Amino acid sequence: MIQHKAGFGMKGAIFFSSKYGSTAQYAEWIREATDLPAFDVDKANADPSQYDFLVLGSPVLYHKLMFHKWVKRNLAGIMARPTILFSVSGAGVGAKLDAWLAGHLPAELFSHVQHIALRGRQDPKDLSWLDRLMLIIGGLTNDDPVASKEELKGFDFMDKSSIEPIVEKIVQLQGKALPGQKGT
Ligand SMILES: Cc1cc2nc3c(=O)[nH]c(=O)nc-3n(C[C@H](O)[C@H](O)[C@H](O)COP(=O)(O)O)c2cc1C
Predict the structure, then answer these.
(1) Which protein residue has the closest C-alpha to ligand 1 atom 19?
(2) Phi and psi of 57, rounded to 5°?
(3) C-alpha of residue 54 to centroid of ligand 1, in Å
C-alpha cells in the first residue's frame, strides 16, 4: 500500500461510471467535499491499485450496476481494500434494489462493501432511442404504478445532501492509520 502525501492515513479515490451524468455529478460532489480524486472507470488512468481505499459509484441500469464488468475485472484489488459502494437508481433503498445488486455482483463483494443507495435522475428527452423505447415498454408493463410513471415520464431525485453518509465514511477511513503506523 502507498502512503498518504502527509505520510499518515489512508489514501482513497473515487471510481465511477455514468451514462447520463447523474452518477458523475454525485462523484463530483463527493470529490469537492473530500478532495479525493475521481476517475471514470472507462478512462485509461483509472487504476485502483494505487489507493488504500476505494469509493465506487455506478448507476443501476436494467437491474444491474452499469460497471459490473469492471468490478469483476478488478475484484481482487477491490476485495483487498476497504470499499464504499454508492449506487444511483430510480428505485429507493429496499429489497428490490438489494436483490438487483446481489444478483449481479459476486456474493463476497456484496458483503465486503459498505453500500449506500442514492437516487438519480432520468429525463426522457436525454435518452438514446433504444433506452427510451425500453423504458416505455417497461413502464407500460410495470405493475407498480409509481415505478411505471417514473419509467414513462422520468424523475429527478438528485440530492446533494444525500452524499453526507458517504463523506462521513470517507473521513473515517482517511483518519485510519496505515498498517504499521499508530492511529490518531
Ligand atoms: C436505460 C435505463 C435503465 C434504467 N434501469 C433502472 C433500473 O433497472 N432500476 C432503477 O432503479 N433505475 C433504473 N434506471 C434509472 C437510473 O438508475 C437513473 O436514471 C440514474 O440516475 C442514471 O444514472 P446516470 O445519469 O449516471 O447514467 C434506468 C435508467 C435508464 C436510462
Answers:
(1) 122
(2) -135, 135
(3) 23
| CA 157 to ligand 1: nearest atom | 21
Nearest residue CA, atom 16 of ligand 1?
A: 89
What does the alpha-carbon distance between residue 44 and residue 129 come to, in Å, rounded to a whole number?
A: 28
Considering the four listed CATH numbers 3.30.1360.70, 3.40.20.10, 3.40.50.360, 3.40.50.150, the one that applies to the domain covering 12-120+157-175 is 3.40.50.360
Helix spans in 35-81 (H): 68-73, 75-79
- Residue 154: count of CB within 10 angstroms of its CB: 16
How far, in Å, CA of 71 to CA of 60, rounded? 14
Where exactly are the structural domains of the chain? 12-120+157-175, 124-155
- Side chain identity, residue 112: H
Is pTM beyond 0.90 here?
yes
Ligand 1 atom at shortest distance from the alpha carbon of 22 = 25
Tens of pLDDT along 123-159? 999 999 999 999 999 999 999 999 999 999 999 999 9
Hey, which of 22, 40, 61, 153 would you mutate to test ligand 1's pocket, going by the most ligand atoms within 8 Å of its Cβ?
61
